[in-house]
C-alpha cells in the first residue's frame, strides 16, 4: 500500500520511513476517522488527514465532469454506475489546496489513472461546476465555490474500467478533499423470491438476504428494500404457521459493540416494517443481531465484507 505525504524535514521523512518499517499500514484507519472508514487501496491519504465522511456502495451512480463548464453548463458529464466509494478528508493546518490536490493527482497517476481533467476554480467553471459534483454533505465535506481544484481520471485494467475524481477546497483554514472512485460494472441480482426463501429455510434452516438496504451506519431502510420485503411478506402470508427469526449481520468495520448494536437495530427495523406495512403479526417475527460473529466471507477483502453485511431469515 502507498501513502501520500508532504515534503518536510528530514526528520519527518525519517519518521514516516520508521513507521513503515514497523509494519504500520498507511491505509489503516487513523484516530479521528469516522466509524468504518478506510482509505482506498493503493491511493492512501495526505499525511495528517482524518476521514470526515465515508460511503461505499456495491452499486450506485455518480456524476463525473471530464471537461470544464462552458456558459455555466457541463460539456462532458459522465454518469457512472457500479461500485462507488466516496471518502472525504480534512487535513491538519498548513498545506495549500494545490499541495493536497497535487499529491492525490500524483498518487492516482502512479496507480495507473490517466488524466481527463485537472483544473482550478475559474478554469473549471466556478460555482456552477461545484454544484454538479456529487459531494458528501456538510460537515463531512466543505467546498468554497470561489476556491477549489478538481481532478478526474480514468483507468482501464483487467477488463475493468475505473474512474476517479478529487475535489479539494478550504473552510476556516482547513483543507477538505473528497476522493470518489467508481468501478464500473453491472448490478448483481440480489432478489430472492418467496419460493427461494421457503426452500432455503427448509433445506438449511436459514437464508441470507442481500436485497435489504440501509443508510450507512444507520438502521434506516432504503426504499430499494421494498421488493425483498414484499417477498418476505408473501412467504409468511402463504405459510400462516411459519414463524421466523430475523437476524442482522455486519462486517468487521467498527467496534464489536457498535456492530452488535447496529445489527440488532437493523433486524428490528425489518420486523417493524413487516408488521407496519405488510400486517405480519409481530409475534411471528423474533429479532437478533450478531454483528460480525458469523461471517460468510473474509473481512480482509471488500467482496468478503459485502457478503457479511446481510439480513438472514432463520427457522426456529
Automatic annotation (TrEMBL):
Keyword hit for Phosphoprotein: no
PROSITE patterns: OMPA_2
Domain OmpA-like: 201-316
Signal peptide: 1-27
Record keywords: Cell outer membrane, Membrane, Signal
InterPro entries: Bact_OuterMem_StrucFunc, OMP_bac, OmpA-like, OmpA-like_sf
Cell compartments where the protein resides: Cell outer membrane
Protein name per the record: OmpA family protein
Organism the protein comes from: Bradyrhizobium aeschynomenes
